Amino acid sequence: MAVHRTENPLPARRAPAQTAPVFTDADAAALYDTLNPWDPDHRMDDGFYFPLVMAADSVLDVGCGTGSMLALARARGHRGRLTGIDPDRAMLDRARRHEGIEWIEAAAAQAPEGAGFALATMTGHAFQNLLTDDDIRASLRGVHAALRPGGRFAFETRHPLARAWEGWTARNPEDVVEVVDEQGRPLRYWHEVDSVADGIVAFHGTVAAPDGTVLRVLTESLRFPGPAELHAFLTEAGFTVQEQYGSWDRTPVTDASPEIITVASRG
Ligand SMILES: C[S@@+](CC[C@H](N)C(=O)[O-])C[C@H]1O[C@@H](n2cnc3c(N)ncnc32)[C@H](O)[C@@H]1O
Questions:
Q1: Which of 38, 69, 88, 248 to mutate to test the pocket of ligand 1 (most atoms within 8 A of CB)?
Q2: Does ligand 1 have an atom closer than 6 angstroms to the CB of 124?
């Protein structure tokens, strides 16, 4: 597989190990960073968000994962409040290695109410982890309550019509990646889709040694809401869509767009 969040889902980290626990949750979180270095200077998706973050006096990164975006913001001189929130302990444990940032182990729905953030982000297609209508509604309520009036929420989802999941297979050479992990282990990683139903794609990623020995199978499900559905959820939650793009080059959303990139404001 290619190693970019733009093109690929990444390891779910709470799936049960299929073999002896030689590849732990912490290893999966480290693999995430190996596959997805945060790089706003060279990656268009990271380059979209980073100026928003640097220009906002306070930022809540929802589904912050290993915290790379906020860590780089602090390293590059952001002086305001930076808070990352994520329900995945192993991911957040990695984020906690970065000092000077508040890390909260919780889901979007539990975002800090009344905190008055200027900007909330949900990068790396994290929004697609919200599977049910109730989860989307509760999460948007949480983000809304954490923003100040006029505060903005920026996030992206993959456009369902682009059917990105069709590339998530070992039959696609771009989906099979070979890396050396932080412990110096050569690894192979690829995906297979298990089901596509009702707008939700269930799939698994396999982490294997070069000889094919399976070290870990990581399962995940992602929802692919369309533009109208997203708009309805945002409006219901009290957001106004300010900007929406179908690609990182800021072209409009069409039926051929790979992404739906949304910047909404809290009313
Ligand atoms: C693909 S990772 C993206 C991490 C990071 N934002 C990035 O761009 O690298 C998706 C993240 O969403 C988190 N997540 C899943 N469900 C969530 C929820 N209900 N609320 C907030 N975050 C959630 C996962 O734990 C995971 O860390």
A1: 88
A2: yes
Residue 223's contacts (CB-CB under 8 Å, 6 or more residues apart) are: 128, 129, 130, 131, 136, 199, 200
Q: Is the beta carbon of 91 within 6 A of some atom in ligand 1? A: yes
Bridge-based pairing state of the strands 117-122 and 147-158: parallel
pLDDT along the chain (267 residues), means of 10: 42 48 91 96 98 98 98 98 98 97 98 98 98 98 98 98 98 96 95 97 97 96 98 98 98 98 96
- Ligand 1 within 6 A of CB of 143: no
Class of domain 44-158+226-266 as given by CATH: alpha beta
- Tell me the C-alpha distance between 223 and 177, whole Å: 24
Measured by CA distance, the residue closest to atom 8 of ligand 1 is 124
> Could you tell me the two tokens for 90?
């192993």
Interatomic CA distance for residues 198 and 224, integer angstroms: 9
246: left (phi over 0), alpha (psi -120 to 50) or beta: alpha
| E strands, the chain, in order | 58-62, 81-86, 102-105, 117-122, 147-158, 177-180, 186-197, 200-208, 214-223, 239-245, 259-266
Q: Is the CB of 238 under 6 A from ligand 1?
A: no
Domain ranges in the chain are 25-35+161-222, 44-158+226-266
Mutate to test the pocket of ligand 1, among 10, 86, 136 (most ligand atoms within 8 A of CB): 86
Q: Which atom of ligand 1 is nearest to the CA of 9?
A: 1
- Position 252: which residue type? P
Sorted by sequence, the CB contacts under 8 Å of residue 97 that are 6+ apart come out as none
